């Protein structure tokens, strides 16, 4: 399948169903066209800022050179977060060149390191990895402490291996609860792998051609990104947002034609763009059901005790309660549940009439007519 055709199919998928998850797009492309696409393709993209080609392996010299050059093009006015595969040169030079940045270690690489550190049975390793993941993803210090305690207790015979591993990776570089910056939900450096995969064919070209081709590819992405435009205000509360698709946002009615706001109760990306552009407070447009006030009101009621006269407890102790008389019906007791109204039973399973195709429905209706 040609790249252009593949790209247009993905864009059409996203246009038709904006809330479609990348995994689902991959499945649908496989089902409809028999092609397997990469995750970065389905994700709708990343924003490559800088890349470098090194003739030798990655070392202190070329990493320092790269970071120094990167420093020239990125703004230092806002916090920067690095997520890396913990290459030794990066561990040294990221804090040296960007002293105010936060450096997160890729969770996937950490997990591989942990796996290599733990001796013994693989089942045990998997269990410990799971506990480590819970620590990494915990959002608060309190939650982290609990998960960390679980990790220590669950490590049992491998506790020393785990402690050795943790001594090499301080909490503030891998645990959400201790991380000083923001990772925006990205725990792994897989986006770098996506870039490597994206330039797969070009990597085998002579270096000048390679740079040209990558530059063209980047330009295509930048041009595609320019299709996102500021919202156009039609009248008070009514906006038109042009992105991959065009959507109409009505702030007064809390609605967007993409439908997501109505379903989730939280403004979609299109609505957020309009709210921010119009300088209004975002919280005014979130369904009040999500507010602390509503939460507190839900739990503000008391459950009154049941007012029943239990009589004389001494007498109740002496009373013998006899079980009700049950008369068994002839035949073997039925184990199948009765089908509820609106459902038909087929080959031992229940199936909704709504799920039937029109042909199946006609066949069943005709059969019922003849049977009756
Ligand atoms: Zn929308």
From TrEMBL:
Residue intervals of the SWIM-type domain: 247-279
Q: Keywords, A to Z? A: Metal-binding, Zinc, Zinc-finger
Any one Pfam family here would be SWIM
Could you give a GO molecular-function term held by this entry?
A: zinc ion binding
Q: Does the keyword Hydrolase apply?
A: no
Write down what this protein is called.
Answer: Mudr family transposase
Instruction: Tell me the InterPro entries matching this sequence.
Output: MULE_transposase_dom, Znf_PMZ, Znf_SWIM
Native source organism of the sequence: Thalictrum thalictroides (Rue-anemone)
Superkingdom of this protein's organism: Eukaryota
């Amino acid at each position: 399948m040609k790249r252009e055709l593949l790209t247009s199919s993905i864009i059409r998928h996203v246009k038709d169903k904006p809330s479609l998850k990348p995994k689902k797009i991959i499945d649908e492309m496989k089902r409809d066209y028999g092609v397997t696409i990469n995750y970065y393709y389905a994700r709708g993209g990343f924003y490559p800022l800088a890349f470098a080609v090194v003739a030798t392996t990655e070392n202190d010299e070329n990493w320092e050179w790269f970071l120094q050059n990167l420093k020239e093009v990125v703004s230092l006015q806002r916090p920067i977060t690095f997520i890396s595969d913990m290459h030794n040169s990066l561990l040294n030079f990221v804090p040296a060149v960007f002293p105010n940045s936060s450096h997160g270690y890729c969770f996937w690489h950490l997990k591989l390191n942990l796996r290599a550190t733990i001796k013994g049975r693989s089942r045990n390793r998997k269990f410990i990895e799971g506990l480590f993941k819970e620590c990494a993803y915990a959002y608060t210090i309190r939650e982290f402490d609990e998960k960390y305690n679980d990790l220590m207790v669950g490590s049992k015979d491998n506790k020393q291996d785990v402690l050795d591993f943790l001594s090499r990776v301080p909490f503030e570089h891998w645990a959400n609860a201790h991380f000083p910056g923001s990772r925006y939900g990205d725990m792994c450096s897989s986006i770098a792998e996506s870039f490597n995969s994206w330039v797969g064919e070009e990597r085998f070209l002579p270096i000048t051609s390679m740079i040209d081709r990558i530059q063209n590819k980047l330009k295509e992405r930048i041009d595609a990104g320019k299709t996102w435009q500021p919202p156009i205000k039609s009248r008070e509360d009514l906006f038109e947002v042009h992105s991959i698709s065009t959507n109409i946002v009505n702030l007064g009615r809390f609605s967007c034609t993409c439908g997501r706001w109505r379903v989730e109760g939280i403004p979609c990306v299109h609505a957020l763009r309009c709210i921010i552009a119009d300088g209004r407070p975002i919280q005014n447009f979130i369904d009040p059901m999500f507010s602390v006030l509503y939460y507190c009101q839900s739990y503000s009621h008391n459950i009154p005790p049941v007012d029943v006269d239990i009589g004389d407890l001494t007498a109740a102790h002496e009373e013998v309660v006899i079980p009700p008389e049950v008369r068994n019906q002839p035949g073997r007791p039925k184990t199948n549940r009765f089908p509820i109204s609106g459902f038909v039973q087929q080959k031992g399973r229940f199936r909704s009439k709504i799920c039937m195709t029109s042909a199946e429905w006609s066949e069943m209706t005709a059969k019922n007519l003849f049977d009756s």
